[in-house]
Amino acid sequence: MKKKLAVLVVLLVLIVLLPISASAQEKRVGLGFGKPTTVLVFSFDPWVAKLAYDFTKGNQFMFLSGSYTLINSRPIAGPFTASLGVGGFARFEFEDDGDNSFGANIPISLEIPMLDDFVEIFLEFDPGLELLPKPKLSWKSTCIWLGATIRLD
What we know:
Structural class: mainly beta
Number of strands: 11
Largest sheet: 8 strands, antiparallel, barrel
Helix content: 10-25%
């Protein structure tokens, strides 16, 4: 039942992203690694959606995140730029005793644009505040990724 719910939510997110992507100023797609283990990134400036997962035995879950970028690729020093956003997340655990959680996060990233901004290397930290099932700051809801995106337009 939990896997079916997670698949349904992923499909709904993709359906919502289609009209947003049509009006985006910049479109990027990418892949990152960290905590959770793997993340797919879909960026339709100023909106960003992430799908992360971990299917290791005993720790199976899917993590969805959507955010609005308030500060996008602001130059900070040399080739480095920084971004800041606000958003929300949903975490679906597939273990029988696992709890699903929903909450808010603040994505903070450091980027290095390369090849005339076609490729972007990023390091992102997303502290998360669980709101459901009960409000709390949790390391389980905090994400850290290192990855790269490519520009599609």
